[in-house]
């Protein structure tokens, strides 16, 4: 999701920016960059070179993917955003936040003055297409880095983030642990190996399926599963457009992993479960629908989210 910035008052924002910049310039305490203010050059998701602290001490993560990646690398951010369509940090990540942190806004709409109040020396900014927003964030710290390309797999984003944080070795270890987890689950699938897995996000306006290169789709692919033929197009990294009742057959598969993101969507799903077009799907009749956390399965994520997807699949399908 592209990010925008909300701000309440120009004077307040300017004052907080001045305060944040002043604290950074003074150094010392939590705002110190670590190794005497030393910096190094990294390449962001756009190919631009950005100088970042050699040892960042106060990291702000503006997306759930940035937060997931930072935590997996042993970094406790001082600023985070709420989850997608939520008013809190995603539960699977909140439990891993052990340090003091500030919520600096919602996913997609960080509040500029709250970001400044967190006094970051590094901002992991996800994907922001608006150069003016980047300009504003860079006034808080020049070390504002776009970590994410919209059209790339989660491992590439994670590897880039590990480099930005100076945690390359730790990043390799995390991906090696993921590969081992994949192998462990794959070895327990028995007769479910190679099954066609339908991945569905139920919205208030109806169901969508995750396109073949979306986050959870890639985890499913790593396990050697197929996707239902109707879910192989169009290509992409996001959910499909909402389906009409006439097209619910596209959701069929050997197994369906189904999630929602908000109460309205959950209510819509409850109503849909009474509709013959849904109840009569072979996957539903077989009892092969698995309810999962839509914030993990149908959004972007990092190592913790990928591990949860693997655990959900193992719980449902391992023999």
Automatic annotation (TrEMBL):
Residues 58-319 form the Fe/B12 periplasmic-binding domain. PROSITE patterns: FE_B12_PBP (PS50983), PROKAR_LIPOPROTEIN (PS51257). The keyword Signal applies. It comes from the Bacteria. Its main location: other. Keywords: Signal, Transport. The keyword Nuclease does not apply. One of its GO terms (cellular component) is outer membrane-bounded periplasmic space. Gene3D superfamilies: Nitrogenase molybdenum iron protein domain (3.40.50.1980). CDD domains: FhuD. One of its GO terms (biological process) is iron coordination entity transport. InterPro entries: ABC_transptr_periplasmic_BD, Bact_iron-sidero_bind. It is found in: Cell envelope. Residues 1-25 form the signal peptide. It holds the Pfam family Peripla_BP_2. Belongs to the bacterial solute-binding protein 8 family. This is ABC transporter substrate-binding protein.
């Amino acid at each position: 999701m592209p990010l925008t910035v909300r701000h309440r008052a120009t004077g307040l924002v300017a004052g907080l920016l001045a305060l944040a910049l002043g604290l950074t310039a003074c150094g010392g305490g939590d705002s110190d960059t670590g190794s005497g203010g030393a910096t190094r050059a990294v390449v962001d998701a756009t190919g631009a070179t950005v100088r970042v602290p050699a040892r960042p001490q106060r990291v702000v993560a503006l997306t759930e993917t940035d937060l997931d990646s930072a935590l997996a690398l042993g970094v406790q951010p001082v600023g985070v955003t709420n989850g997608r369509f939520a008013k809190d940090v995603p539960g699977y990540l909140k439990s891993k936040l052990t340090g003091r942190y500030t919520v600096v806004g919602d996913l997609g709409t960080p509040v500029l003055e709250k970001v400044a109040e967190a006094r970051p020396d590094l901002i992991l900014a996800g994907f922001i297409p608006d150069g003016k927003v980047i300009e504003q964030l860079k006034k808080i710290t020049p070390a504002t880095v776009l970590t994410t390309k919209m059209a790339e797999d989660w491992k590439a984003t994670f590897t880039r983030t590990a480099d930005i944080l100076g945690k390359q070795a730790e990043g390799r270890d995390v991906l090696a642990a993921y590969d081992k987890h994949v192998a462990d689950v794959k070895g327990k699938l028995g007769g479910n190996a190679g099954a066609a897995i339908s991945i569905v996000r139920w919205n208030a306006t109806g169901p969508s399926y995750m396109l073949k290169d979306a986050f959870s789709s890639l985890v499913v692919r790593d396990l050697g599963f197929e996707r239902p033929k109707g879910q192989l197009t169009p290509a992409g990294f996001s959910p499909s457009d909402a389906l009409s009742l006439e097209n619910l057959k596209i959701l069929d598969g050997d197994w369906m992993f189904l999630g929602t993101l908000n109460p309205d969507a959950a209510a819509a799903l409850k109503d849909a479960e009474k509709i013959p077009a849904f109840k009569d799907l072979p996957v539903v009749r077989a009892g092969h629908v698995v309810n999962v956390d839509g914030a993990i399965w149908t959004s972007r994520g990092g190592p913790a989210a990928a591990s949860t997807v693997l655990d959900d699949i193992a719980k449902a399908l391992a023999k």
